[in-house]
Specification:
By secondary structure, this protein is α+β, with helices and mostly antiparallel strands. The chain folds into 2 domains: about 250 residues, no CATH class; about 100 residues, no CATH class. The chain contains 21 helices and 9 strands. The strands form 3 sheets. The chain has a 4-stranded antiparallel sheet, with helices on both faces. A 3-stranded mixed sheet has the order 8-3-9. A two-stranded antiparallel sheet has the order 5-6. Bound molecules: cobalamin and iron/sulfur cluster (2 copies). The site of cobalamin (B12) has 37 residues, from helix 4, helix 9, strand 7, helix 11 and helix 13.
């Protein structure tokens, strides 16, 4: 098998492809794995399109319980997502790829520094979607040229259940926190998929190695797991700070702490991370300004400076208003009265989403008397009903406390 690859390694261009096209399916799979590694993928496995029958039922139960919240795109065409053949009837094999993005420091450390914003590890560098998609396309082109098959590539955004497919392809298992855990890379693998019309030999599915551990369930700040292996996305900080478009429900605001984009807690505590390795992809490495960004500076971003700071970053997707909403929740949780001036300025922001979050931040930082005086003037000028409700809610809580 390896010999087949080694035997053609010195060939180039059409001669190489001609030689590869004569390979057996097993040798072609080996050659594919070498090609994937050369492109920067850290693991690769193959499964069959009918390998995730159980996931379909779980997915339907997830949707029926409403756990997807506002993510309507997740509920659209569930039959497509539940079975790769629903998405593309011609698919014969699913190639799953993983790219390690392990960090050089624990994402839990910054949670103690309340003046800084914690951006989850996956979003501290360039957007992985762009990077992985480009590489998947290169690998897929190689496969087409080598075998004449047809292909489709996916990363994250299509109706593909990447985690169960990756488990079926032997890349790891879905832990109790529902993400894929790898014995080699712990919690830190991005996933991508290539669907092909080619029949490739299948890998054995990985088994569950969680055992009696439940560290990820215990650490979750918002109790987002109704049971092991089940997530209520509506309670997850990743959903609340990235997917949710409106005001963040009051019940979660304190628990969010200084997490301003995503959350890594359940991933970070997994004992399998003792085998994790630092990612080797420079473009995904943390940018210094995103590793430990000052809340005061982030609260001053306008549309233009937000877009400039988050060029190529996945954070850009949520836009300035939602991002500053998150920053204000973190400011409210900072316990640092000197940050109140940032929130005061934003009480007159153009965005009602930002104004509402600023009101809450001030309700956490100002003395009751100062808050009431500010409310008396600002509330009468407020025309937006949701922001008015924030003032009233904050006022009644403060009033009750004073
Ligand atoms: C929607 C989505 C989210 C939503 C919902 C997450 C979720 N768990 O469903 C939100 C916004 C919350 C989210 C958050 C995050 N996400 Co996300 N997300 C997705 C997306 C687009 C779809 C996931 C999906 O299909 N959800 C639907 C549910 C029903 O499916 P499931 O999670 O597989 O649920 C299974 C279990 O519940 C299980 N099950 C249910 N009941 C039972 C009972 C028993 C007994 C058993 C054994 C199993 C079981 O069966 C279900 C089906 O397999 C995928 C990309 C993709 N296309 O797959 C990325 C993806 C899962 N996300 C990813 C990442 C990195 C994250 C975050 C870590 C980001 C962050 N740092 O903030 C967090 C992690 C939060 C968490 N604990 O899951 C990566 C995960 C990589 C990996 N190694 O697993 C993915 C694969 C993107 C990628 N291409 O790399 N995400
Ligand atoms: S990402 Fe954070 S909030 Fe979401 S389930 Fe994990 S620990 Fe809980
Ligand atoms: S923390 Fe424990 S229970 Fe959670 S995924 Fe890791 S091994 Fe499984």
């Amino acid at each position: 098998m390896a010999g087949g690859r080694a035997g053609v390694a010195h060939l180039r261009g059409p001669r190489l492809l001609n030689a590869l096209s004569k390979l057996s399916a097993a040798d072609l799979k080996d050659a594919l794995a070498s090609e994937a590694r050369a492109l920067g993928f850290d693991c690769v496995g193959v499964t069959s399109p009918d390998a995730i029958a159980d996931a379909a039922g779980h997915f339907r139960a997830f949707l029926d319980s409403g756990a997807h919240g506002e993510m309507d795109w997740l509920a659209a065409n569930p039959e497509r997502r539940a079975d790769p053949r629903g998405l593309w009837p011609a698919v014969r094999s699913v190639i799953m790829l993983g790219l390690n993005y392990g960090s050089d420091e624990s994402p839990l450390t910054i949670l103690e520094s309340r003046g800084l914003g914690a951006i989850s590890v996956y979003a501290q560098g360039d957007d992985y979607h762009d990077l992985i998609k480009k590489r998947l396309k290169t690998l897929a082109r190689w496969l087409v040229a080598t075998s004449g098959c047809e292909v489709k590539v996916f990363v994250d955004t299509a109706a593909v259940m990447e985690k169960p497919l990756a488990q079926a392809a032997g890349l790891g298992w879905q832990g109790k926190h529902t993400n894929l855990v790898s014995r080699e890379f712990g919690s830190w693998l991005f996933l991508g998929a290539i669907f092909t019309t080619l029949d490739l030999p299948r890998d054995a599915a990985d088994a569950d190695h969680c055992g009696s551990c439940q560290a990820c369930l215990d650490i979750c700040p918002t109790s987002a797991f109704p049971a092991p292996y089940k997530l209520d996305a509506r309670r997850c900080i990743s959903y609340l700070t990235i997917e949710s478009k409106g005001p963040i429900p009051h019940e979660f605001r304190k628990a969010i702490g200084n997490r301003i984009y995503g959350c890594d807690d359940c991933l970070a505590v997994c004992p399998w991370n003792k085998f994790a390795q630092e990612g080797r992809e420079a473009k995904l490495a943390a940018r210094e300004d995103l590793r430990a960004a000052s809340l005061a500076e982030l609260a001053r971003l306008d549309d233009a400076t937000f877009r400039a700071q988050f060029t190529k970053s996945p954070v850009k997707r949520i836009g300035r208003d939602r991002f500053v909403r998150n920053v204000l929740i973190a400011i409210g949780n900072s316990g640092d009265g000197t940050l109140a001036c940032e929130a005061k300025r934003l009480v007159t922001d153009d965005s009602p989403l930002v104004r509402g979050a600023a009101v809450w931040a001030l309700s956490q930082l100002l003395e009751p008397k100062e808050f009431s005086e500010l409310a008396a003037t600002a509330m009468s000028a407020e025309r937006d009903e949701t922001v008015g409700a924030e003032w009233r809610a904050a006022g009644s809580v403060r009033g009750a406390a004073s």
